[in-house]
Design brief:
It comes from Bradyrhizobium sediminis. This protein is of the alpha+beta class. The chain has three helices and eight strands, in the order E-E-E-E-E-E-H-E-E-H-H. The termini are far apart.
Length: 123
Amino acid sequence: MAIEKCINEFDVDEVIFEGGSTGRELFVVLEGKVDIAKINGASKTVIVTLGKGEFFGEMAVIDGSARSATAIAAAPNTRVMRINHARFVYLVSQQPAFALMIMDALSKRLRASNAVTFRTANP
C-alpha cells in the first residue's frame, strides 16, 4: 500500500475516531495536534493533547477492543498516518526499538492514569 493512502488530513474539531468504536489502527501525528478526549453528551474532557511524532490508538491495534476515548483534530491541517494491525505486527516483529517505544509509552500512560485515579480516590 502506498504511504499516501495511509495519511489523512483533518481540520480543527474533526473527529478521527470516536470512543466506543472499533478499530485496528494506530495513528501517528505527522503535523498539527490531536486531542484525546472523553465525550459525555455535550461535555468534552480533554485527557491529553498530542503533537508531531506522538501516537494514539495503540490499545485497539494491540487487543482489538473498543476505543477508550475520542480522537479529535485540535489544529488546522492536522495530518496523521494510519498503521493497520498487520503493519503494526510487522513493525513490532522486525523493529525491537519500535516495540520498546510502544511499551514505554503504554507504561507512562498507565502510570499517569493510575496517579489520577489514586488522587481521585484519596483526596
